[in-house]
Amino acid sequence: MFSEAGDGLSHHPDLAGKVALVTGGSRGIGMATCRALAANGARVAVNGRDRAAVDTVVAKIVADGGTAVPAPGDVTDEAAVHSVRESVERALGPVEILAAFAGGQGAPAPTTELGSDRWRAVLESDLTSVYLTVTAFLPAMIELGGGSIITMSSTAGRHPGGANAAYAVAKAGVVMLTKHLANEVGRHGVRVNCVAPSAVLNERMQRFMSPPQLDGLAATFPLGRLGQPDDIAQAVLYLASSASSWVTGVILDLTGGRVIV
Ligand SMILES: NC(=O)c1ccc[n+]([C@@H]2O[C@H](COP(=O)([O-])OP(=O)(O)OC[C@H]3O[C@@H](n4cnc5c(N)ncnc54)[C@H](OP(=O)(O)O)[C@@H]3O)[C@@H](O)[C@H]2O)c1
């Protein structure tokens, strides 16, 4: 059931033909997740706000022989989330794998200088978006009698650190939302798990950090390197597939050894 594919990704035959939606699939970790799911034969809906970025990911997957459709929309907007659901169901059918990954407003700020507008915006971006996404797709999963939901927390939601307080609180909220839902919907065959990465190289880090700064950060990890988007995508493949069929309510710390619990 679990073998190493030629592209370095793990291979899960049971994912073939499954319908997956990845919010925040247009860049970074989400993009790697879309490509990994498609490489395993899943039919993937790619979400993000930037339509051009979404279309680029869809085109890459199709060029690689996979199946993907665009599902653009702002997942902090409830009506937009329902439009995304309707368009994905029309194009591919009901979603069986849901990766709720959109977000990422963790830039540091002293708590007293954050301000209530930014506090609310970060909670909308990194917590309410997950609630809206999951609740839009859960009823169809319950009706189907199964599904795998994977949410996105962060080391910031597990331990106090450098990110802003609203982001830390939002990502800690994702942890409890995941556990709560796993407990609530397990009897319907729906599993809900969470990934909690530490520093994973993305476009923003590459733009704002110099190579020596990135090397210095990498050296702080017991495994001596930063995370790559594919490190997270591999964990998602496991959590999406039947390889994890008795796993729910788990928070998977993906941290190069930085967080050892
Ligand atoms: N990179 C890390 O070190 C790290 C560590 C722990 C957790 N995380 C989490 O992992 C997730 C992805 O992070 P990343 O590093 O891959 O970031 P990224 O490269 O900036 O990608 C963020 C993605 O989320 C989308 N997005 C953001 N807000 C959205 C919204 N309201 N509606 C729809 N799409 C939205 C973006 O699309 P548009 O650009 O089109 O809006 C983009 O596709 C985030 O939740 C982040 O908090 C990242």
Terminal CA distance reads 29 Å
How many separate structural domains?
A: 1
N-to-C order of helices and strands: EEEHEHEHEHHEHEHHHE
CATH superfamily, called what? NAD(P)-binding Rossmann-like Domain
In short, what is this structure?
This protein has helices at 28-39, 51-63, 78-92, 111-114, 116-144, 165-185, 203-208, 211-218, 229-240; strands at 3-4, 10-11, 19-23, 43-46, 67-70, 97-100, 147-152, 190-197, 251-254. With 261 residues, the chain is an alpha/beta fold. The chain has a single domain (3-200, 229-253), classed as Rossmann fold (3-Layer(aba) Sandwich).
Key words describing this protein structure:
alpha/beta, seven-stranded parallel sheet, single chain, Rossmann fold, binds NADP nicotinamide-adenine-dinucleotide phosphate, two-stranded antiparallel sheet, 261 residues, disordered N terminus, 9 helices
Walk me through the topology:
Elements: E1 3-4, E2 10-11, E3 19-23, H1 28-39, E4 43-46, H2 51-63, E5 67-70, H3 78-92, E6 97-100, H4 111-114, H5 116-144, E7 147-152, H6 165-185, E8 190-197, H7 203-208, H8 211-218, H9 229-240, E9 251-254
Parallel strand pairs: 3-4, 3-6, 4-5, 6-7, 7-8, 8-9
Antiparallel strand pairs: 1-2
Helix pairs in contact: 1-9, 3-5, 5-6
Bound molecules: NADP nicotinamide-adenine-dinucleotide phosphate.
NADP nicotinamide-adenine-dinucleotide phosphate (NAP) binds at residues 23-24, 26-30, 47-50, 53, 74-76, 101-104, 106, 125-126, 129, 152, 154, 197, 199-200, 202-204.
Description:
This protein is of the alpha/beta class and 261 residues long. The chain has one domain (3-200, 229-253): 3-Layer(aba) Sandwich (Rossmann fold), CATH 3.40.50.720. The protein is built from nine helices and nine strands. The strands form two sheets. The protein has a seven-stranded parallel β-sheet, with helices on both faces. A two-stranded antiparallel sheet has the order 1-2. Helix 1 packs across helix 9 (229-240), helix 3 runs parallel beside helix 5 (116-144) and helix 5 (116-144) runs parallel beside helix 6. The chain is globular and about 45 Å long. The structure holds NADP nicotinamide-adenine-dinucleotide phosphate.
